[in-house]
Amino acid sequence: MINSKKSKIWYGGDYNPDQWEKEVWDEDLRMFKLSGIDVATLNVFGWSKNQPDEDTYDFGWLDEMMDKLHADGVGVCLATSTAAHPAWMARKYPDVLQVDFYGRKRKFGGRHNSCPNSPTFRKYSVRMAEKLAERYKDHPALLIWHINNEYGGAGNCYCDNCEAAFREWLKERYGTLEAVNRAWNTGFWGHIFHSWEDIVLPSGLSEEWYGANGRTETNFQGISLDYMRFHSDSLLECYKLEYEAVKKHTPDIPVTTNLMGAFKKLDYHKWAKALDVVSWDSYPRFDTPHSYTGMMHDLMRGLKEGQPFMLMEQTPSQQNWQPYNSLKRPGVMRLWSYQAVARGADTVMFFQLRRSIGACEKYHGAVIEHVGHEHTRVFRECAQLGAELQKLGDTIIDAKFQAKVAIVFDWENWWAIEMSSGPTIDLRYVDEAHKYYKALYELGIAADVVSVEADLSSYDLVIAPVMYMVKQGVANKLEQYVQAGGSLISTFFSGIVNESDLVTVGGYPGELRKLFGIWAEEIDALLPTQRNRMIVSAGTNGMKEEYECGLLCDLIHSEGAEVKAVYGDDFYQGMPALTVNKFGEGEAWYLATSPEQAFIKDWLSQLCSSRGIQPIIQNVPEGVETTIRYKDKQQYLFVLNHNDQAVQIDLAQVTGTDLLTDRSLTGGEVELAAHDVMIIKLS
Ligand code: GLA
Ligand code: ZN
């Protein structure tokens, strides 16, 4: 349980009374009660109000608000407010300001605007966290700490303090300059460093530039990868300093910071180790597939080995920062809230509780809209959900997820793939992972999304798409997993480099060559308009005879693996496109190209059914999502209808009670309205 003081699904979100006159506060509290809101995230951007100058701290408004909320039964997720520094600090201590990619010193403005290696920032952010912890350590409303906000949300810093810190970071990682030169292959383009001072940050002034497809390109992958690691670590260090400051006074209050799903800049697997609870902000675009949102929830759940997570933010209605900010259709906010719960969230929280009147988020949705009263569609929907969550009480809290399939996701691999400079600019790591996830999602098969360090032994099938970077120990670990009977899938462009982006010589896929029983001699990149075909071996159950493929085609030779499909066209027609290698008790599949989605679905369907990995319910209509959460011996089946129309669902033998309606279900056909949800306590 996140905090036993509140043993139900927390319901609430970001609340900024500090931006309002006190006159509205009681009105807010009245409406929180009406809508079942019982958690408020306070003080996210309160720094400049709480500390008007270097020596003055004034928490008057916060004292009053904490007490008021508590009196009304609303708990507090208390932010440390350090995601935007005060203007006086920027004026007085310019080291707090960042230097951008082109070497320009920034002025005061925006948010997420502090240099993570600024001595001023570190000093005052930690002091603020500590002051808050000292002050509120015994406050009964305090449920959890929310450190900073969406770390990494703005540009990176390239200032002199960061540069000096980078050199120290390198000394720590490599020990000697010789080791750095080796790791970065600095003989290339005459880059050999003879002094630590020779090393500068890779920016638009040195090694990097903004290329096509939103990528940051670099001359030196080794340097740029280390800078990304360093930058992620620098922010993590800031987080940890605040973490320690609050823990000193409140050792029993959990601590989190709100993450952002597949947010590229921060290695969340590393971060998760420093969080007590994972929390994240879910903002699907108007055209985001539901399966993608599902994958993000699963990625976040996987950060802490399946421990329940917090949905920290979502909009009740619309966003403001997308090109087209569609309203969530009636029922959709509720549906997406339950999607998070279905995948392991124990909170449903919004940005924001009351809509602001000025600056760039005034058109961002809120529970309380500009009209100021409760007679709105959005409020009614929020209140309905609030009542349902009250009714659910602690039933689902702490219930776990179980999956027999895992998808491996690795941030450093992602960085390396997308700064590789060849063979294609169209390869997007997250999209590749999503293809597999989507197929499983549509098949109704539960998957975990896990780190490359995760224990794989409980999974029957592990999918590691585009394992381009093979870090130390990973090849060995995968071999052991397959040896012991596991089934592994990897794809094209795998086993190419080590963690410094240095190629493993002796034939691709390098360290994975023995495991897959293949050698990839060359890699062809196809134009967006070009296709090849995969011709599937006769006698492969349930598959078509051929499928399209494209993007990249590894030209592979079998070295013992059985060939299951071959290319249909081009000069490599007849060469293997899909192979399987028996290895110990298990098998290792290598898919040498990126096929059309139908292939992935047909193939995974075969692989899963032959391993006894079953969908949760057979044959659900398209657009219906199913998951199960497990608690002790009890199972809770979530059925979510993402369609705009009602659907008929065949529950077959499933019996139980829908916790939302108390309807008892005795198997067979049931109708589920458009955007509606059932949470069936199975009997
Ligand atoms: C983020 C931030 C919030 C707010 C919302 C708007 O998630 O954490 O402060 O800006 O976006 O969507
Ligand atoms: Zn800096």
Walk me through this protein's architecture.
With 683 residues, this protein is an alpha/beta fold. Among the domains are: 160-226, no CATH class; 405-610, Rossmann fold; 624-682, Golgi alpha-mannosidase II (Immunoglobulin-like, Sandwich), CATH 2.60.40.1180. Helices cover 29% and strands 22% of the residues. The protein contains 17 helices and 30 strands. The strands form 5 sheets. Strands 13, 14, 15, 16, 17, 18, 19, 20, 21, 22 and 23 form an 11-stranded mixed β-sheet that branches. The chain has a 9-stranded parallel β-sheet with strand order 7-4-3-2-1-11-10-9-8, with helices on one face. A hairpin with a 2-residue loop joins strand 24 and strand 25 (634-641). The mean pLDDT is 97. The site of alpha-D-galactopyranose has 9 residues, from loops. Alpha-D-galactopyranose is lined by residues 149-150, 281, 283, 313, 319, 351, 361, 364.
- Which CATH class of one domain? Alpha Beta
Helix content: 25-40%
Task: Could you tell me the CATH topology label of one domain.
Answer: Rossmann fold
Q: Cofactors and ligands present?
A: alpha-D-galactopyranose, zinc ion
Q: Could you tell me how far the N terminus lies from the C terminus, measured between alpha carbons in angstroms? A: 24 Å
